[in-house]
Amino acid sequence: MHLSHDPAFKRLFAYPEVVHALLTLVPGCPVAAETRFDRVNCSFTSSTERQRYADMVWRVKSAHAEFHVLIEFQSSVDRQMVQRMKVYAGLLAQDFCAQHKTRELLDILPVVVYSGRRKWPNQRTGIPSWLKPFQEGKAFFLIDEETAGDLIIGDLIRLVRADSVAQVVRSAHALLAWPMASEGLRQEVCRIANERVEVFRTNWEGVMDDRAKAKSVRVPTLEETRQLSELADMIIDVMKDAPEVKRLMAARTEARREGAEAGRQEGWQEGRQEGRQEGRQEGRQEGRQEGRQEGRGDVLRELLGSACEADGYLRPIQVGMIANAETCQLQRWVQRVMAGEKLEQVLVEGGP
User: Against a cut of 0.70, is the pTM above it?
Assistant: First the structure.
């Protein structure tokens, strides 16, 4: 899966601090800390009523100069880039004059931000000598990874075209640590880093992605897992107050709550079932035990009853005592009677 570079660049270069960093790469460009930046409509209508679109236009105003920056994003070499930029610059100037009812010349700085891996070729040199004065004017200023180097624009380019988890983590870390980055830019960097990680099709769950992963092509290596964990920590730290993360965390909290409730219900049902099984088992055991006790008591009562009849007496009070006595008491009475004691005396004493 390949992600187009343009959408990510447009989101990143929508922040004035990024445009300011870009202009510092242009030799002699009059930008300062107090420079003002305003986005400008980048849709132009030609004289033939054909609509044309540039990638991005900014109006830049400082104490020393006022000009427009025309930015185009390229991930591949375009041999017609000179002509395109000349057309865009001409249409921008024409549109500006029409809107402001002026004939003043518009100062335009055309810039191409190139993120491709193939080196951008030099302009053709085989121009006839008599045409050189008309065509040698520089049509745009090229900024690529080599031009940007280790500066912040270089990190932006490396993030957008990253081809490994390690590159995403390194670039995101540098951009998030940039002192000039606004909170909005930091959050945008996190979103793009999250998107770039998904391109590698690992089974890592995106921090800000609640879509279920149907399958994964490969399992990340231990080093990738460590890097992904580092990236997740950075993203969560920056995005904890972002609306999409709040929604996602709320959804996951609710899902965990529902899961816990379902687990409790399931456990309760299983507990009830197990309780019934154990109760039945214990009931059977207790029933057998009680049955044995009652059976033993009946036998002892019969023995005592026989002893009473043998002695020639069986009063109601004695019958009641024998009938209501516990098995252990009956057993002691039987033992004493069998030892030669009179049952009447044993029952009067009521104990062993």
Answer: no
